[in-house]
Specification:
Radius of gyration: 27 Å
Number of strands: 0
Mean pLDDT: 83
Number of helices: 8
Order of helices and strands: HHHHHHHH
Low-confidence stretches: none
Shape: elongated
Largest sheet: none
Helix content: over 70%
Strand content: under 5%
Amino acid sequence: MSEWVALLIAMVAVCAVVLAVVVLRQRRVGEDDDPSETPDVIEYMTMMIGVVYAIVLGLAIAGVWEGMGAAQADTLREAQALHEVSARAEVLPPDARDKVRSQVDAYVSYVVDTEWSYMSTNEELSPKGTELLDQLRRTVTERAPENELENQAYQPMLERIATADEARNSRGQSVGPTMPGVVWFGLLTGGAVTVGMLFALQIRRSTRELLLAAAFSALIAFLLFLIWDFDNPYGRGISVTAQPFLDLFPNLS
């Protein structure tokens, strides 16, 4: 089942529960009940709970969005560093140049074709990808420069490989959910309390009030879904892709 279909079902279910509770509650209320008699303190508490929960939701969304942005930046940095290694290998003799470029292509192909799905399934980097990057590092490190031009390219190539390795490690740290369980407990509990406070205001069965209650409940469900989806940058519907590698290595696509 698509995650967006699951979101739609969840939003409809939340709306249905809220509307059902309102209708059933109104059937049990006597005709002499006056909703305007709701104490002012309840309205004040409802407002404060809504404001506090909105702040918590905003911070959570900002946090997971920043995490996804950092994951995308790490992917681009890794791809760019490897592209620079391949480009700087131009000054090497044909056999050494071809070996370096073939190892770069092998690593990029493995990341795009295999490791991306491996990260989603296992929530960690694959040992094979680490091995391929280590082979590239050894190939560049073990060959001594033979002239001044190669000497000028040698250190920058090592630095780019180190940058790619650093970006790869950062990518590994972003794999899997990052939101602590206690935060999720607070978000879900706060959402339930915020929606539940609607009933403390004694809303009636008028079309306007029912629509507002349903829309508010659906909005809470949608925001929680966004947080859940962004919480795993590489493994869910709105995820970081390997497109930077494909853009910089079009021959492999």
